[in-house]
Amino acid sequence: MISEVLVSIKADMQRCVDGLSHELEGIRTGRASPVLVEDIMVDYHGALMPLKQLANITVPEPTLIAIQPWDRTVLRAVEKAILKSNIGLNPSNDGSIIRLAIPALNQERRIELAKMVGKRVEERKIALRNIRRDGVAKLKRMEKDKEISKDELDATLKKVEDLTDLFVAQAGDRGVAKEKEIKEL
């Protein structure tokens, strides 16, 4: 019973940190990455679909993203979606491929991006603490309902706290690494 709760808490925390990693990959650093555009929603014949389901996204050069839709009729819609997404890139359409040149970041934009990274990391740390709070509440209910003893509760609460510390540190490390990447380019 206790092990199930611990496994559930650990899995939720791992998903939270993995989600942060994916979110941070989508923050532009001056290097091209398909992650920057793959989740942009495109209006495809009346239905919103992520770009990655409509096109082949490649990085032929370190500062260029090439998007080749499987259906050429969707080129204009992809171009519009990129412009609406506010990622700060201007698409260049040659009739079959859309190219996105990734410009170098200026110092002001780097500071702005670093703040955004810090904010996202802090949001994830709060989410991790909320997962801890919910797990602790579940364990205390189990103790109250006489499913586990007070000693088991105390030992398990220590494990939950250790898990929380571990995942909060991981989230912080990923944020620091991303900020370093943003500032060094």
Q: CATH top level of the largest domain?
A: Mainly Alpha
* Shape estimate: elongated
Gap between N and C termini: 49 Å
Main sheet: strands, sense, barrel: 4 strands, antiparallel
pLDDT < 50 runs, ≥5 residues: none
Per DSSP E runs of 2 or more residues, the count of β-strands stands at 6
Helix share, percent: 55-70%
Describe the protein.
With 185 residues, the protein is of the alpha+beta class. It folds into two domains: 2-25 and 106-184, Ribosome-recycling factor (Topoisomerase I, Chain A, domain 4); 34-101, Gyrase A, domain 2 (2-Layer Sandwich). Helix content is 58%, strand content 15%. It contains four helices and six strands. The strands form two sheets. The protein has a four-stranded antiparallel β-sheet with strand order 3-4-6-5, with helices on one face. Strand 5 (91-93) and strand 6 (98-101) form a beta hairpin.
Keywords:
185 residues; two-stranded antiparallel ribbon; Gyrase A, domain 2; Topoisomerase I, Chain A, domain 4; 15% strand; 58% helix; single chain; alpha+beta
Write the layout of secondary structure elements.
Elements lengths: L1 H24 L15 E4 L2 E4 L4 E7 L2 E6 L5 H10 L6 E3 L4 E4 L5 H38 L5 H35 L1
Helix pairs in contact: 1-3, 1-4, 3-4
The gist of it:
With 185 residues, this protein is of the alpha+beta class.
